Amino acid sequence: MCVSQVKCAARSHGDSVTSGATRWSGRPSPASGFWNRFHTACHARVVTGDTAEPQGRVPLRAVARVTLDDVARRAGVSAATASRALGDHPHVAEATRHRVREAAAALDYVASPEASRLAGGPTGRVAVLVPHPSRWFFGELIEGLEAELRAAELDLVLFRVGGPEDRRDFFARLPARRKVDAVVVLAFAVDEAEHARLASLGVAVVAAGGRVASYPSVGIDDHRAGRRAVDHLLHLGHRRIGMLAGGDEQRLSPDPDGRSSAWRAALRDAGAEPDEELVATAPWSGEGGAEAMARLLGLSTPPTAVFAHCDEMALGAVRTLRRAGLRVPEDLSVIGIDDHPLAALTDLTTVAQPVREQGRRAGELVVDALRGSAPPRVPPAEMLPTHLVLRGTTAPPGAAR
Amino acid sequence: MCVSQVKCAARSHGDSVTSGATRWSGRPSPASGFWNRFHTACHARVVTGDTAEPQGRVPLRAVARVTLDDVARRAGVSAATASRALGDHPHVAEATRHRVREAAAALDYVASPEASRLAGGPTGRVAVLVPHPSRWFFGELIEGLEAELRAAELDLVLFRVGGPEDRRDFFARLPARRKVDAVVVLAFAVDEAEHARLASLGVAVVAAGGRVASYPSVGIDDHRAGRRAVDHLLHLGHRRIGMLAGGDEQRLSPDPDGRSSAWRAALRDAGAEPDEELVATAPWSGEGGAEAMARLLGLSTPPTAVFAHCDEMALGAVRTLRRAGLRVPEDLSVIGIDDHPLAALTDLTTVAQPVREQGRRAGELVVDALRGSAPPRVPPAEMLPTHLVLRGTTAPPGAAR
DNA sequence: CCTCCGTCCGGAAGCGCTTTCATCACGCGG
DNA sequence: CCGCGTGATGAAAGCGCTTCCGGACGGAGG
Predict the structure, then answer these.
(1) pLDDT at position A256, please?
(2) Where in chain A is CATH 3.40.50.2300?
(3) Most buried of A289, B54, B214, B277, CB within 10 angstroms?
(4) How far apart (Å, rounded) are the C-alpha atoms in residues B100 and A155?
């Protein structure tokens, strides 16, 4: 067929190719077809048959591979010197360094990351472990992280580590192995065994969107954020306050009890004994919140206000309430945490947290770890500020006129 | 300080190290500190001073680097044979292959991607170009893609290509260069110059979330989806139908006119001349939709229904309407496209599209391109089905009792 | 005037893998 | 019983880069 290809090497050695070898390179295996076509294009020649490629789908290799040697030659120095010059090593004459830089720029030279890494350099890659990329919170975190990593010329490799089996699989196979310089763990707790496994990667680890002991981390103070929310409801006069808690079977939250304990503490401080009956646990989603809210409505004495662990859950609760014919906030107040963009649209009162900023800071921590000389004695655990955003889903109890 | 390190090599050659060399390796440059600490740990020894690391932050390198040679030795074969065995090449005895596999498994061997790539193999990495990772649509696309790529043991490298300057920067610097086997472009159009640049990467290109001529792609039929939405409104009896169009300065949508042209065509087919006054263009966001809706409300004769290019815009519109004291759908109907999870929560009527599935299929196309032998003559352009989801934001005009 | 010690640079040795080429053992028809 | 094709294997040559070593060179110090 027109896709048959023959190695130059084989060709250049005359027709001494054995039929076996020819068969092998002529019939691309499932794993080699593409590589023949693209990656070894510089060694390969396409032997077009009668049905020549109509689409102009000839090998795409358009840029010639510029190597360090090319740069060195152009600058009139050796490859060793060129490498030193580009790598900002000392003991290179200023003039030489300049010449090499110019040559590199002129040739549009980009070091091969593979060769560089193989010879002892860094990979320039950072792994990001994320439970659920499509949730706004994680998307936002990633966005902040990406911006920072890009500025540092690091690439972001995404690994989804969602359900328990994903998680097991990841830590068992450790696909990030030998592939990255650092790992960022987004918003989930890492247990002892996993910690050990991660440590065996021999890379820097940073946590974002929550705290992980023993790693540098950025996050918010969950307890404080929770207090802000519950205190707001208490301040409005509510005493029977329900809680829609994010389920945490997969330890998605490093501080699963922060928000929950805040609810208890706030109620106690207000002189109201927390009633565990008012806690409904469900997945961190709109559906979860809707379902949990329904459970609370089934109580003989439903709450007059609910505190949801996140905005999605809060919005789910609002839907359940509306469907039940209840008015928000007149009949029941709802507050969340996050300040999801849709919270503004749906007029949801919430406690805002700077999510993208958390990603950004995590990126900085990574860069520090990679570029910095000495790691800090005690891993920094940054807490970014949160603030209450008053909107239309909270009001004093019995506010209906 | 306690972080000073000396190369084993330098040490083993006795104390012939020059003071210059010592100075250089002893004082980690901004770019080398971390690498000394982690990556070249196997060549380095930590010379702890009096202030020994108290945190037990000794070099983390815990796993010994297992090389192909180790595997080969254990299996009692040469490295060449081991490589062939693991790479599924022919001409390897079944028994040998088996032995090598076992040895590799036992040693927990993972090929060094750098070395592999350098020697002509694939990188096992796929670049994903995404405009806006925190938007649900893209997150979902990424999630689908990731699942598929993971199954094929490919890593996903994320590049945010958002605003025009990002875009220019990306295509100018082409950071994916020499780093990936394929590129997936999410939901944005690629112009001629960019196409050429991408082609120069010498990798496979796939588009998802929209069509891009000359690349294999997956997406939905925007025109058809738009028709479904507008036809629904027409069917309910609306004739004065507004449109909240997603702004497309950055050519975020490969088929910018698909949804818009659907609106025109549907109206014409229904015997109503489309009134361009009823088109409000704004960013693809809740805020954008809210603002665009406000503009339409300012018309002397506002529409009785609006078709939004996406659910976020539709939700923004709903907020504007509520704030204006209008009831949805009694006073004005609203329909979107996407079936965003919050659409279900907010009872928004919409045209659902299988976003995650698009990501998944894009992943398959990538794998096909990489593993497949011959690229298809004409790049496949898959259209995934959409369907109308009836909820509570649409009703016949004047439905208020 | 001759060391000694810097600076600056080139040669060369790998990094861990894939692939080519040569070799070897085997079984077969002549 | 020899030559030869065939399948299985090993030795070795790179891939492009970083880094080590030592040589050349020049100025300071004896």
Answers:
(1) 61
(2) 125-220+357-384, 222-353
(3) A289
(4) 33
In CATH, the number for domain B125-220+357-383 is 3.40.50.2300
Which part of chain B is CATH 3.40.50.2300? 125-220+357-383, 222-353
* Phi–psi pair at A374, nearest 5 degrees: -115, 135
Contact criterion met (CB below 8 Å) for B61 and A202:
yes
Scan for tokens 């960019």, then name that residue. Answer: B194
Strand D, nucleotides covered by protein (CB < 7 Å)? 6-12, 14-22
- Please tell me the least confidently modeled range out of A45-59, A93-107, A322-336: A45-59
In sign, the C-alpha dihedral spanning B372, B376, B379, B384 is negative
A155-159, A171-175, A328-332 — which is least confidently predicted?
A171-175
Put simply, the answer to whether B377 touches A34 (Cβ < 8 Å) is no
Q: Where in chain A is the domain with CATH 1.10.260.40?
A: 68-111
Classified by CATH at the fold level, domain A125-220+357-384 comes out as Rossmann fold (3.40.50)
CA-only gyration radius of chain A, Å = 29
Q: Please tell me the CATH code under which domain A222-353 is placed.
A: 3.40.50.2300
The sign of the CA dihedral B152, B158, B164, B165 is negative
Tell me what the mean pLDDT of segment B248-266 comes to. 78
Q: How confident is the model at residue A45 (pLDDT cuts 50, 70, 90)?
A: very low
* A77 has pLDDT over 90: yes
Rounded distance, CA B45 to CA A225, Å?
Answer: 45
Among the residue ranges A248-262, B222-236, B341-355, the one predicted with the least confidence is A248-262
pLDDT attached to residue B185: 93
Superfamily of domain B68-111: lambda repressor-like DNA-binding domains (1.10.260.40)
Tokens of residue A16, six digits: 């001494």
Give the integer Cα–Cα distance in Å for B155 and B144. Answer: 13
Distance separating alpha carbons of residues A172 and A187, to the nearest angstrom: 20
Show which positions of strand C are touched by protein (CB under 7 A): 5-12, 14-22
Q: What is the CA radius of gyration of chain B?
A: 29
**Nearest CA to CA, how far is B136 from chain A (Å)?**
6
Question: Strand (E) positions, A339-386?
Answer: 349-352, 381-384
Report the Cα B351 to chain-centroid distance in Å: 23
For residue B39, which amino acid is it? H
Please compute the mean of the pLDDT values over residues B356-374 and round it to a whole number.
86
Residues 49-78 of B with CB under 7 A from strand D: 76-78
Alpha-carbon torsion (A209, A214, A215, A221), positive or negative: positive
Residue B293, both tokens: 């809706």
Neighbours of A354 (CB within 10 A): 18
CA of B24 to C1' of C4 (A): 21
B68 CA: distance to closest CA in chain A (Å): 14
A24-28 contacts: CB < 8 A, separation 24 or more? Answer: A24/B89, A24/B90, A24/B91, A28/A3, A28/B373
What pLDDT band is residue B256 in, cutting at 50, 70 and 90? low
What phi and psi, each to the nearest 5 degrees, are found at residue B5? Answer: -135, 150
Nearest to B135 among A39, A120, A139 (CB): A139
pLDDT recorded at residue B214: 76
Q: What are the C-alpha distances in Å from B284 to residues A289, B58, B246, B260, B297?
A: 27, 50, 5, 14, 19
Return d(Cα B355, Cα B142) in angstroms, integer.
Answer: 9
